[in-house]
Amino acid sequence: MQNGELDLWRVSREEAKSPGEFIRKELENRGWGQADLARITNRPLPTVNEIIQGKRQIMPEMAVALGIAFKTGPAIWMKREMEYRLSKVDQVDPEMEKRARLYDLAPIKEMQKRRWIAPTKTTAALELELCKFFGVVSIEDEVTMAAATRQRIISDDLSSSQTAWLFRAAHVARMLTVGKFDPKLFTTSGLELIRKLAARTQDLAHVPRVLAELGIRLVVVEPISKTYIDGAAFWLDGNPLCPVIVLSLRYDRIDWFWHTLAHELMHIKNGDKQSVDSKLVGETRHESTAEIEARADKEGADFLVPKARLDSFIRRHGMHLTRKKILTFSKLIGIHEGVVNGQLQHVGEIAWSANRDLLVKVRDIIIASAITDGYGHTLPISININS
Q1: Which domain covers residue 70, as residue numbers?
Q2: CA triplet 244, 249, 250: central angle to 5 degrees?
Q3: Which of 200, 242, 250 is nearest to 220 (CA)?
Q4: What is the largest CA-CA distance in the chain?
Q5: Is the pTM of this model over 0.85?
Q6: What is the CATH number of the domain that holds 35?
Q7: What is the pLDDT of residues 266-313, one digit of tens each?
Q8: First vs last C-alpha separation in the chain
């Protein structure tokens, strides 16, 4: 029930009448007795009497019989029976509404399993844990919860799981110490330095360190079950000099890693507000995107594999994009062959099944060098973001 429906039920339960009262009125209007109704409906007289006294429920078959006898149809009798029985329900546990609200606001079970919040035995304790996690004094409603004064995480278009994941990323990012972020330096030599690490698999291990030296906090947070979040970019405390990139690593492939990272890097380069991205890589990435996301897609892809060079490569080789030619082209532009292969798959130039061995696994390399929550790594229980 919504709050309005719940209040209406509380009022109506005091006014609900027994279906027997309506039956008595119908009998009076017709000058019938209970015995007459028993004969008409072909029911035992004791059954009719118990229904009228409210001792026996009106079952669907009896509702049909009453609907025919009184020419009202059966639905009204089922409705009256339901309303009457609901009115007899004892007062609802006042904590039930609050518990339902808390579970609606956050994926409680998984947050406790992941040690983002502590296990609790009471509703009050659970609410306190969520307040600590989201950095608020009290949880009045979803908007208040999402608008933590320092965190500046926007949750209007996010699910409760995505919001919790994003806040956890902020908690983890606070554990890092990084260099000073210089937007101009990052846009020029910084991005060039990062791209050089995309040539060889083994260089992935240096990505977190290089980003930290550039003033960017890179963290890995395993996604919450049944969500499709890939990555996010936001500014810690709303400070334009404290960029954070969080990756879920839900796909263990080199093309996924670099395309997702590049997408988030473009958000940082352009100073975009918080971005939470899903389905960035793969066959499902066909939906229209907002202008900012479309720009990050385009610039991120061009950052890794310049579009002019990729288009030229496709024009020259057309239907003959062999593995050998892809390897040669990748080496020529200084990018890992799995990234090029992934782009060619994405634009439909080669089949999704082509050269899958080039899409090497990278998760173990990344989590060995980046601060990670999940994938077997357990970090301290949630930090109060207002502390």
Answers
A1: 3-87
A2: 130
A3: 250
A4: 99
A5: no
A6: 1.10.260.40
A7: 999 999 877 676 655 554 444 445 788 889 999 999 999 999 999 999
A8: 37
